[in-house]
């Protein structure tokens, strides 16, 4: 006979397990400690008997237990084992949660960091662009559920903003994440492989930079810039040192020895992952001592306005050049081209210039040559001559 709620509530625990049957395999088992749980006995597709739990009473009512019995018997009628079906659902749920794009991206990133140990910029940049452009949109999605059109929309967002280089890097990172997922058995298809044909072609060129003929006016315009003393000093230091704008923005006072006239940038902040020594001409020392009066209480030379623990915006130097009238003609990174060209025209050795730019020499020379050329008559003398040269040409009218 079918069970009733009254019968269930009236049945007390005994010295052995009490079993109340509702028919068609549904039972309520009452243990000696009073726990009550629903069970469904059934025959598996292979003919063997089995049992599955349907939850505890009264959390699962009699009516709800009967509904579950009906649903499971439908599966059995289709030749599906309810226990195996439940296990498959758990596996699918676990697979979905453990195989989201963000989870796999962070696994890939952790695997790549040891290989990129000599390129700290790639370590930081790869994570930053993923956090900015991908994780907010599809990070929590199962990797195989993300459609090619969704990737196209993400990449075109950067394309429409004119950020072609960032688009290229992001495309490469995401493509490699899918390759990692395929190799580790979490994906079967890479939608990033064929997207290139749907994107606008982009050929990477050199950064915008002025010819040597316009260098005197650039020096004068930087000296006259009055919107921010920090930005003015930053632009001038780029000309006096030829470092990358990011290396300068993130510079810390602890890296400078003004008495020895040298700036030692640690390896973790360098693009090539190698420590770099920058000789400081007297003009740079003068600017740094003035800047020290402004920002000495902070760790950074160029602390941000809203959060001094972070450097000023990477757009600060570029915006200043735009205000001076150099938009589309000269950018902060282009200053390295100007300095390198000027030093070459002045007749300085290629090795000194390349080392000043923190470039690795090509071929065998780059493998076996580790000279810093920091003797007083080498790079320090070269950069002092360059600083004097800038003073001279900017004074000529």
Automatic annotation (TrEMBL):
Gene3D superfamilies in UniProt: 1.10.150.130, Integrase, DNA-binding domain, Intergrase catalytic core
Domain Tyr recombinase: residue ranges: 205-383
InterPro entries for this protein: DNA_brk_join_enz, Integrase-like_cat_sf, Integrase_catalytic, Integrase_DNA-bd_sf, Integrase_DNA_bind_dom, Integrase_recombinase_N, Phage_int_M, Phage_Integrase
Top-level taxon in the UniProt lineage: Bacteria
Pfam families: Arm-DNA-bind_3, Phage_int_M, Phage_integrase
Keyword tags: DNA integration, DNA recombination, DNA-binding
Family of this protein: Belongs to the 'phage' integrase family.
Protein name: Integrase
């Amino acid at each position: 006979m079918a069970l009733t709620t009254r019968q269930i509530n009236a049945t007390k625990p005994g010295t052995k397990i009490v079993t109340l049957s509702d028919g068609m395999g549904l039972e309520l088992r009452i243990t000696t400690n009073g726990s009550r749980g629903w069970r469904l006995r059934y025959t598996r597709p292979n003919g063997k008997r089995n049992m599955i739990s349907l939850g505890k009473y009264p959390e699962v009512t009699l009516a709800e237990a009967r509904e579950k019995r009906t649903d499971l018997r439908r599966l059995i009628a289709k030749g599906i084992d309810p226990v195996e079906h439940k296990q498959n659902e758990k596996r699918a749920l676990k697979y979905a949660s453990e195989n989201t794009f963000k989870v796999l991206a962070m696994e890939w990133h952790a695997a790549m960091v040891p290989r990129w140990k000599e390129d700290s910029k790639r370590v930081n940049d790869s994570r930053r662009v993923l956090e900015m452009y991908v994780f907010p949109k599809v990070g929590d999605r199962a990797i195989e559920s993300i459609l090619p059109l969704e990737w196209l929309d993400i990449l075109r967002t950067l394309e429409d903003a004119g950020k072609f280089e960032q688009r290229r890097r992001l495309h490469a990172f995401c493509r490699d994440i899918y390759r990692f997922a395929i190799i580790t058995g979490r994906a079967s298809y890479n939608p990033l492989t064929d997207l290139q044909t749907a994107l606008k072609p982009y050929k990477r060129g050199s950064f915008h930079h002025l010819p040597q003929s316009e260098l005197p006016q650039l020096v004068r315009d930087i000296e006259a810039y009055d919107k921010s003393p920090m930005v003015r000093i930053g632009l001038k230091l780029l000309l006096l040192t030829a470092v990358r704008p990011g290396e300068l923005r993130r510079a810390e006072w602890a890296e400078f020895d003004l008495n020895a006239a040298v700036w030692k940038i640690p390896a973790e902040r360098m693009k090539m992952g190698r420590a770099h020594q920058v000789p400081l001409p007297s003009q740079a020392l003068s600017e740094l001592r003035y800047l020290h009066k402004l920002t000495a209480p902070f760790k950074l030379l160029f602390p941000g306005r809203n959060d001094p623990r972070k450097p000023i915006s990477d757009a600060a130097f570029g915006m200043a050049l735009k205000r001076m009238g150099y938009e589309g003609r000269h950018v902060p990174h282009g200053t390295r081209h100007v300095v390198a060209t000027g030093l070459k025209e002045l007749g300085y050795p290629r090795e000194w210039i390349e080392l000043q730019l923190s470039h690795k020499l090509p071929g065998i020379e780059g493998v076996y040559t580790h000279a810093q050329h920091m003797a007083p008559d080498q790079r320090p003398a070269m950069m002092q001559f360059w600083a004097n040269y800038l003073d001279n040409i900017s004074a000529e009218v």
